[in-house]
Design brief:
By secondary structure, the chain is α/β, with parallel strands linked by helices. It has one domain: Ribokinase (UDP-N-acetylmuramoyl-L-alanine:D-glutamate ligase). It has 11 helices and 14 strands. 37% of the residues lie in helices and 24% in strands.
Length: 317
Amino acid sequence: MPDIVTLTINPAVDIFVNVDRVEPTRKLRCSAPKRDPGGGGINVARVAHRLGANVAAIYPIGGAIGKLLQRLVEREGIASVVTPSHVETRENFTAYEKATGEQYRFVLPGSALYRAEWEACLDKLASLPEKPKYVVASGSIPPGVPDDFYAAVVRQAREMGALAVLDTSGAALKAALGDGVMLIKPNLNELGEFAGATLDSDAARIAACRTMITAGHTQAVALTLGADGALLVTAELAWRAAPMQVEVASAVGAGDSFLGGMMAALAKGEGMADAFRMGVAAGSAAVMSPGTELCHEEDVLRLLDAVQIREIEPVLS
């Protein structure tokens, strides 16, 4: 029985290359491409699996790229529950410019799905032979899929007796909140957009998180702050994680790695503070890996003891 089931309605094959310099018009000679499975929920599944969790991933696939995606996911040892799509699965493209160390990320929207195609993913979730502890709905919504799709995922998780975890933004986030979400993982821009305010201090950020919690939108908020660390806020407590000093190779997938680390720890029965610590280690380890590799277990475990978190609610209340 999987402890964690992820649902990714807009999966992708992520392509990563190195290039000397990005310039207009000229042909840019790239390194041999590296391809990884991608999309929010798939990335969460990859990391949670690497950290010892029993995971299954639900996602639609279409065309030759969809078949490649399934092979890439299953090559990592993750059980796939796939549904067919009439359109080719999307690709994303990331180029690392060696001259400057900058990354250029080209993210495609995904092709429109028919109603029967996105409903098939919900049906797969509802018909799982054994029920998971957690259902993680993560990533963007492609054209043709309604904004309340993740709200339907959350409702289904509740009916199954599973805890729902959500990582998306905009209208999809707003539509899903309040249906029994245990945890959401926004970044600062996403939380600020939801709150309709500039959140330029920890006090303002905690207040925005607490507003969502007291309104019944979610039980907890894990707020990633990029190079400034992270916050975890519940109804009673708030923890602050200091930024970690690591050598940055790629920013791709740091947030997904953070959530994957948290989910792996929660699936093992660890408390929220320890899961937060694991998430910070995993997110920090992800930026050390090139391209779209995400974090690796040995890096996460090496960083774990160095993660510094402190309870800050007494200071800010």
